[in-house]
Design brief:
Elements lengths: L1 H27 L4 E11 L22 E2 L3 H7 L5 E2 L8 H9 L3 E12 L9 E9 L4 E2 H12 L12 H21 L6 E12 L3 E12 L10 H9 L1 H4 L1 E13 L4 E5 L3 E10 L23
Parallel strand pairs: 2-5, 6-9
Antiparallel strand pairs: 1-4, 1-11, 3-4, 5-7, 7-8, 8-9, 10-11
Length: 301
């Protein structure tokens, strides 16, 4: 009789234990989601001292990413929990309006998306493009970097001897001329975006933003207000440099605090970013969100 009672008690407890374990597992699988909103803008008036720009390649495209400019990519990213925000869900429209009205800045991109909070190894980078589109008469500095790499691989001019500086200079000039001729003969490449690169929002203990962006600008330009015969002649003599686009980098890793507006910048352009936990009504438990951390004050201007 005692054994029978014990058996009945155990049989009654097992479903309750299984149910509790199932609830615990379901809670553990809840992944927080975030709304990410970004504003990118360039400085119309850069600092008086010219920035020395070393040749640097454009960011490499990852195999798996969310390309905001591709409907196919946006649709595929939905399966991974990524989706674009509608304009009704934007929180920074007032700031965008002030940037547009300001003579000091030029808006490059305003975008937003929703994504899961994942480790950096699991997160999908977001590929962005913005600003003007340079036509086929322009080429990226990437072509120059590749050309110089090919020169470095050329065999020595003398047996076992290092090539002279004069040989290097002539070789570079010759290949630059070839590059310009090829560039002029090439059909339009579909356009190079003024702004391009990738942003990753990852979650470990805290939120982190990883930005790798470039702003492309002609290697040689002059201020339109200083335009005269002398500058026109100089630009004409260095036509190749007016058609090569330098990469001005914004490459930064930053720990973020949700609901705070953060500012990342370089001498040429900057980014405002706001990350907001989404949405308690959708079943996201605020207790599962990462702890808040005191960081730099939110951007106010």
């Amino acid at each position: 009789m005692k054994l029978r009672l014990i058996f009945l008690l155990l049989a009654g407890l097992l479903p309750a234990v299984a149910s509790a374990q199932s609830d615990t597992a379901a809670e553990a699988e809840v992944i927080p989601r975030y709304d990410v909103e970004i504003i990118l803008f360039k400085n119309v008036r850069v600092p008086g001292s010219r920035e020395f720009v070393l040749p640097a390649s454009s960011p490499g495209k990852p195999e798996k990413m969310l390309d905001l400019s591709s409907e196919e990519s946006v649709e595929a990213a939905r399966e991974e929990g990524y989706e674009l925000l509608s304009t009704d869900e934007y929180r920074l429209l007032d700031i965008v309006a002030r940037l547009v009205e300001s003579p000091r800045y030029e808006l490059l991109l305003h975008a937003g998306w929703r994504q899961p909070g994942l480790e950096r190894e699991q997160v999908m980078p977001v590929w962005i493009k913005g600003g003007r589109i340079y036509g086929g008469e322009y080429t990226s500095i990437d072509s120059r970097i590749e050309m110089m790499a090919n020169i470095a691989k050329e065999p020595s001019a003398a047996d076992g001897a290092e090539r002279s500086f004069e040989f290097e200079k002539q070789s570079l000039e010759s290949q630059e001329a070839q590059l310009l001729e090829q560039q002029q003969a090439m059909p339009a490449h579909g356009g190079l975006y003024e702004l391009e690169g990738k942003i990753s929002i990852a979650l470990s203990r805290y939120l982190h933003t990883f930005a790798d962006l470039v702003l492309r600008k002609p290697r040689l330009t002059t201020d339109p207000e200083l335009k005269n015969a002398a500058t026109d002649a100089y630009l004409a003599a260095h036509a190749a440099d007016t058609r090569i686009l330098n990469n001005h980098h914004l490459r930064e890793q930053r720990r973020m605090r949700s609901r705070n507006l953060h500012y990342l910048d370089s001498p040429e352009f900057g980014m405002l970013i706001l990350i907001t936990p989404y949405d308690a009504e959708q079943g996201v438990d605020e207790a599962l969100l990462p702890p808040e951390e005191e960081t730099q004050p939110a951007a106010t201007e």
